[in-house]
Design brief:
The chain is of the alpha+beta class. It has helices at 14-25, 51-56, 97-110, 212-220, 267-287, 294-320, 323-333, 336-342, 350-369, 373-381, and strands spanning 3-10, 30-33, 48-50, 66-69, 72-76, 82-86, 92-95, 114-116, 125-127, 130-135, 138-147, 159-160, 162-168, 176-180, 191-197, 200-206, 226-232, 235-236, 245-246, 249-251. The chain has 10 helices and 20 strands. It starts with a strand and ends with a helix. The structure holds flavin-adenine dinucleotide (FAD).
């Protein structure tokens, strides 16, 4: 006999599990299916996140899921000039992402969702009042299908190849995140160091058209390191999808492009997308009025769209900067006042905060270095 649920969620990572937990809490029958055998594995994400954002949406990590607290961020120019931003007020931590996903899976199950692993969700077929999908070997019917399959289905534009190692090295500073800008080595992105313990870090590199492993190996030359784990995973920086809802299918998390285009951080924005969409989906199913699902996109955009657009413009500027431009921007901006203002910003809304810290005079200084349409549009916004 075909099993029936109100909702089938394809993808048991942070977005799918949060959605399942929130929908089940509202009395909706939910099956969340993950193609891998273990929730949280294989782990690809670095887990850098603000506690403020997670608390706001009701998903604070348990103490033992937090690997590290971040006290400062150091930004390096191509010639290795740098400035440090005090991050103690930003409440930023590094999570064990695999353990965090397991925490949310347990919460979803406690709320009544069925969590199935080792079960790939196939392409949906339309049926009267819903859809039919293969979940593993079984045929399942549902009234709504949630696509939380991540980069597999996120819009293709804006995907960058990335590589990351988890490693040990004496050179790693325990509470300091480091970002290395270099338009030649990491075009359109950067290399990063995210410490998750004493002398341990998640170190990565991404960029348009590069071999990220080669870039990472070159970054590590001269930095004595023991590599514990190698991960290859694309990052998404293309901005939100134009439409989150397609008839009986709803996109959440990275599938919906709910990822910051500046840093590719998507934990908090995906959780937010799932919390908001589950609320609208549960109500739409109870009222049998799928039209009301439009409220999901409206609500998510009312919180995040302006920030995402600003991030996309900043990304547009970054993609145009050569290394001499980057050095000039550093000279123009690395003032004590700017750095101090950055330390009082909101990690999750850093593009708006960065514009605020720059002010019109700062933007004019950037505009002298880079004459681009993106900087002009930021000036209009500022
Ligand atoms: C190298 C790297 C580092 C990152 N670091 C950070 C960071 O420090 N901070 C941050 O906020 N964000 C970070 N991110 C981004 C963050 O990991 C993602 O935005 C977030 O995981 C998106 O969650 P999601 O649930 O939408 O998708 P995903 O986490 O990608 O999960 C999708 C899930 O769907 C499953 N799946 C796919 N197809 C099917 C199918 N047909 N049937 C069943 N299951 C399926 C997959 O196996 C996977 O488990 C990083 C990403 C990468 C690649």
């Amino acid at each position: 006999m075909t099993q029936t649920y109100d909702i089938v969620v394809a993808g048991g990572s942070i977005a799918g599990l949060t959605f399942a937990s929130e929908a089940a809490k509202r009395g909706v029958s939910v099956l969340v299916a993950e193609e891998h055998d273990e929730i949280g594995e294989p782990e690809k994400c670095d887990g850098l996140v603000s506690l403020r954002g997670l608390r706001k949406y009701g998903y604070p990590p348990k103490e033992d899921v937090i690997q590290n607290q971040i006290h400062s961020a150091v930004i390096h120019s191509p010639s290795d000039r740098h400035f440090a931003v005090n991050a103690t007020a930003l409440d930023v931590v590094v999570l064990d992402r695999s353990a965090f996903d397991k925490q949310v899976a347990a919460e979803a199950a406690r709320n009544g969702a069925e969590v199935r692993t080792g079960a790939r969700v196939g392409a949906p077929a339309k049926r009267e009042g819903g859809v039919e999908v293969k979940v593993g070997d079984e045929l399942v019917r549902c009234r709504l299908l949630v696509d939380a399959t991540g980069p597999a289905s996120s819009p293709r534009r804006g995907i960058l190849p990335a590589a990351k190692y988890e490693l040990e090295g004496e050179w790693i500073r325990e509470h300091v995140v480091e970002v290395y800008l270099d338009a030649a080595r990491y075009p359109g992105f950067f290399a990063w160091v995210i410490p998750f313990g004493k002398h341990r870090a998640k170190v990565g590199a991404a960029g348009y058209g590069i071999n990220p492993f080669r870039a990472l190996d070159s970054f590590l030359e001269g930095r004595g390191s023991t590599i514990l784990r190698r991960v290859s995973a694309p990052i998404y920086v293309g901005g939100p999808a134009p439409s989150f809802v397609e008839r009986r299918k709803v996109l959440v998390g990275e599938s919906a492009g709910q990822v910051k285009p500046t840093t590719a951080g998507g934990i908090m924005t995906s959780i937010a997308g799932s919390v908001i969409s589950a609320k609208w989906a549960s109500a739409a199913l109870k009222e049998n009025n799928m039209g009301s699902m439009a409220g999901y996109q409206r609500e998510w955009e009312s919180v995040f769209l302006k920030e995402m657009r600003t991030m996309l413009r900043l990304r547009g500027v970054l993609e145009k900067l050569s290394n001499p431009d980057l050095e000039a921007v550093f000279s123009a901006l690395a003032t004590p006042k700017f750095v101090m203002k950055l330390s009082q910003t909101d990690f999750d809304f850093h593009a708006t905060a960065l514009l605020g810290a720059l002010g019109v005079s700062g933007l004019l200084r950037v505009a002298r270095v880079v004459a681009s349409a993106e900087v002009r549009s930021l000036l209009v916004e500022g």
